[in-house]
Amino acid sequence: FAIGVHSIYDEGTVAAPLIMLLDKYRELKGEPVNINSMHRTQDHQEALHAAGYRTATTSPHVDLCMAADVDTHSEQDTYDSVSLLTKAAKQLGLKIRLGFHTYLADGNTFVHVDVCPEYYGKGKPYYGKKHPVQWENSIVW
Q1: Would you give per-residue pLDDT tens digits along the chain (141 residues)?
Q2: CA-CA distance, 75 to 20, in Å (whole number)?
Q3: In a 3-state reduction of DSSP, which class is residue 125?
Q4: Surface-to-core class of residue 70, CB atoms within 10 Å of its CB (0-12 exposed, 13-18 middle, 19+ buried)
Q5: How far apart are CA 86 and CA 91, in angstroms?
Q6: What pTM does this model have?
Q7: For residues 57, 119, 103 and 42, what is the CA-based torsion angle, rounded to 10 degrees?
């Protein structure tokens, strides 16, 4: 992970569970991993939406640094990456959320992964803060 790359900005703190997960994923994959998005400003999120990209109204990419979009090279590589991310999370005891079905349907090959349940799940540090209910549990979409 290199600070200064267009998808990783020099501001904010990336959630430690996300870094641990991505590092374990890279280890399991056995090759370098490209991240096409990690931290986003609200302005960047709105620009993506205006350009026609699928973006969430409230995103764990924006200012929270709890999400990453992992590049994949094909539909099969997307499924393989989902399997490896799931395995990495299990090995680390992390609850994660994975998004890829809707992106594949649009012809995009990447996997959204976030660690929101580690912060917003019941009994977690941000549970009482305002957040989308979907951030509380591990889900795949």
Answers
A1: 544 444 444 455 678 899 999 999 999 999 999 998 887 888 877 888 888 887 778 888 887 889 999 999 999 999 999 999 999 999 999 999 999 999 999 999 999 999 999 999 999 999 999 999 999 999 999
A2: 25
A3: coil
A4: buried
A5: 9
A6: 0.87
A7: 40
Task: Please name the residue ranges forming H helices in the chain.
Answer: 16-29, 42-50, 75-92, 101-105, 117-120
Q: Tell me if 98 sits within 8 A of 86, measured CB to CB.
A: yes
Alpha-carbon span 114 to 139, nearest angstrom: 10
Task: Tell me the backbone φ, ψ of residue 87, rounded to 5 degrees.
Answer: -65, -45
76-111 in b/e burial notation, b at 16+ Cβ within 10 A?
A: ebbeebbebbbebbeeeebbbbbbbeebeeeeebbb
